[in-house]
Amino acid sequence: METAISAVAGELVSQFISFLMNKYNSFSHAWSEEEKAVERLQHLLMRAGTIVEEADARYITNSGMMMQLKTLSEAMYRGYRVLDNSRYHALQDSAGFDEVRINDSSRNNLYIAKRSRITNDMATCLESHGALERLEIAVANMAEFAVLLGGFERMSRRPYDVYLYTDNFMFARHAEKQKLLSFLLQRKGPPGDHTLAVLPIIGDATTGKKSLVAHMCGDERVRSSFSSVLHLNGDNLLRILDHGRTMEGMILIVIEFASDVSDDDWKRFHSFVITMGRGRKIIIISKLKRLARFGSVKPIFLSLLSDDELRYLFKKLAFGSVDRAEHPWLVQIADEFVKVLQNMEGSIVATNLYADVLRKNLNVQFWRCILDKGRRYANRNQ
Q: How many Å apart are CA 382 and CA 147, to the nearest integer?
């Protein structure tokens, strides 16, 4: 009898050990696959970033290529978000349970914590593979794009001077930049053609309308095309009647409207600019969609940055030249900052200001302190 019990017990122990080994091998295999996916994602993000930066430095006139660039950029921004999430979850796994779970040692809560961690890991894994698949497709479709890109003229590089720039290129707005540039560089019509070129740029207060115009007006080709740039306030639109006749050459007129203007006043202004001679162009800047009616070409409508774009921009500015992979806890705090900025309607000015403060002190406690202040400020102004 004792021999039989010993044999059964030995068999049970053997089966249990075998079960544990299978579970371990299964987990190890899944974790290895996840590591490979993250490594592949990193590699593709480097390739995508290289293509996007190179494209941003070229005068691209092909609308199909601009659509491809937009698709690749969106996949890249999403990929960076997923990569940061994967790194943070890996850090949590290596550090054990978080503070709440450490302080609560009951069996029931421990079970819930484990199940929650498994659920989060599964969601992260699925998101990683989804982002990887999307980025792989986008990059694979860029082979011809990369070849054609070399045929477009390169833009001049200028230092960081406006808050929408990261390093030495303006962040996002690829299609809008190219459309504005094409408008500014378009040659004047034949002799006798007195049509006045008017481009409205419409968007909310935090979308970077003036920064977009300032960026393109700083381009060497644009500067050489206009003898002067005249900035007007829409409230004093007709003041040009007193001083405009003294201006000669190709003139770019940039008008910022805070409120609507009557059709009669616009007609007087429009007629006067025509009498000034050929070669004048007008850019209208406003948040009022009604002003698009004055355009001679299709308006540029600027929307708020997407969540992934805003997240990418903020981290790019906050970490600067520092590799954020070395500061995973700060990356997680940066994600919380993005939520605050979203409550501010994605304000580019606030994004730049917070990032500038944080970049000077890469300390977890300091970042949390600034985050708390930002939350209180956002709540007071809601």
A: 48
In terms of residue numbers, what domain contains 202?
173-302
Please, is 148 exposed, middle or buried when counting C-beta atoms within 10 Å of its C-beta (0-12, 13-18, 19+)? middle
36 burial type by CB count under 10 A (0-12 exposed, 13-18 middle, 19+ buried): exposed
Whichever domain contains 217, its CATH number is: 3.40.50.300
Same domain, 288 and 215: yes
Is-contact 359 350, C-beta < 8 A?
A: no
* Residue in the block written with tokens 């390169």: 154
Residue length of the chain: 382
- Provide CB contacts within 8 A for 6, sequence distance 6+: none
Q: Within this chain, do residues 212 and 246 fall inside the same structural domain, yes or no? A: yes
H or E segment to which residue 285 belongs = strand 281-286
Question: Same domain for 225 and 105?
Answer: no
Token reading at 16: 């249990």
Q: Take residue 274 and report the two structure tokens written for it.
A: 């025509």
Boundary-marking domain end, from 115, 149, 183? 149
Compute the distance between CA of residue 374 and CA of residue 238 in angstroms, rounded to an integer: 42
Do 355 and 273 lie in one domain? The reply is: no
**pTM for this entry:** 0.71
251 φ, ψ (degrees, to nearest 5): -125, 135
**Alpha-carbon separation of residue 142 from 66, 122, 134, 161, 310 (angstroms):** 12, 31, 13, 31, 24
Q: Which residues are CB-contacts of 351 (< 8 A; sequence separation ≥ 6)?
A: 163, 310, 313, 314, 317, 341
Tokens linked to 295 = 């355009």
What are the tens digits of pLDDT across the range 44-73? 898 988 888 888 888 888 888 888 888 899
What are 290's two structure tokens? 């009604």
Q: Are residues 226 and 346 in the same domain?
A: no
pLDDT confidence of residue 157: 53
35 and 125 share one domain: yes
Q: Could you say which of 272, 287, 302 is where a domain stops?
A: 302
Q: Which residues of the chain register pLDDT less than 50?
A: 1, 4-5, 7-13, 15-17, 19-31, 97-120, 122-123, 159-169
C-alpha 228 chain-centroid distance: 32
Q: 187 with 278, same domain?
A: yes
